[in-house]
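Whether sequence alone determines local backbone shape is best considered at the level of individual chains. The sequence in question and its structure tokens are set out directly beneath this paragraph.

===
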Amino acid sequence: MVKPVADEDFYALYSDIVDGFVEYGTREDFLQIPPGEGTSWLTKQRKILDRADDHGTSSHAFNEPDHMGWRDDVILIRDGRAELRRLPRADVRAYLQASRIDSDAAFNALEREIDDDEPPIQSHTIETLTAYRRTQNGATT
């Protein structure tokens, strides 16, 4: 969960599968209990949102303190596409709202992460998660 702007009641759920945001809304929106869930789900969701309020992200950071938190002015997103783009943190809400109208145009308006002559770079979230899992499994390489 990412809270792009500290003083706004707006949160966006980031997926490392698509390297992009998959849902957004207010705190109240994210506290709507889905069918089949109960108070333990609600308690967990409140903790996630509280962490996003405090750090700008609910991430525990996989070796990068506050990854996608307040220290990051730009979030790299792929949004299910082949290349990464730079999404300024302050523009997350506008980007997501524009994506609902025309996702390709919104994505194409973002700055590329690399030069056109360079091959696409790997997602920082996948690389970081892979490295974290290796350290948790006791692997050194």
Notes: The mean pLDDT is 81. DSSP finds four helices and five strands in the chain. The helical segments are 27-30, 39-55, 92-108, 124-136. The longest helix spans residues 39-55.
